[in-house]
Amino acid sequence: MYDPDGDDDGYQSIRLVRARDIYSESEKCYPGLAIRKLGYTCLAIDATGGGDPYFMKTSEGDNPPVYQVYHDVSQIGSVIEREGMKKIADSLSEFFEKARINDYQNPFEKG
Question: Which pTM value belongs to this model?
Answer without folding.
Answer: 0.80
